[in-house]
């Protein structure tokens, strides 16, 4: 917050979430789903996303969580680029077609 204004936030899911009404993802003990982070356009480029994530993830580690799980949609090119880091590990894929 800056002068009472929210300039960045993230949301984290600690146990499970429903991607759609027909797909539920359950996390193992100690995992959390890093759903996303948003920074208001006027404040982008100030490394707030990384700072906010670092703070939130350290709090989760203090609560006993040990691993973050994320998903990247194949068509989301910017998310794909952000996931190309040495600490990341590809663990599988989910493909579905619903008619």
Question: Care to describe what's here?
Answer:
The chain is α+β, with helices and mostly antiparallel strands and 99 residues long. The protein has one domain. 21% of the residues lie in helices and 27% in strands. The protein has two helices and five strands. The chain has helices spanning 48-62, 77-82; strands spanning 8-13, 16-20, 23-26, 31-39, 67-69. The strands form two sheets. The chain has a three-stranded mixed β-sheet with strand order 1-4-5, covered by helices on one side. Strands 2-3 form a two-stranded antiparallel sheet. It is globular, with a radius of gyration of 15 Å. The termini are far apart. The model has no long low-confidence stretch (mean pLDDT 80).
């Amino acid at each position: 917050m800056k002068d009472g204004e929210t300039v960045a936030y993230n949301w984290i899911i600690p146990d499970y979430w429903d991607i759609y009404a027909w797909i539920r993802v359950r996390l193992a003990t100690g995992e959390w789903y890093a759903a996303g982070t948003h920074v208001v356009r006027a404040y982008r480029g100030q490394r707030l996303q990384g700072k906010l994530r670092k703070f939130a993830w350290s709090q989760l580690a203090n609560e006993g969580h040990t691993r973050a799980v994320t998903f990247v949609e194949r068509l989301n090119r910017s998310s794909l680029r952000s996931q190309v880091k040495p600490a990341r590990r590809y663990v599988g894929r989910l493909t579905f077609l619903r008619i």
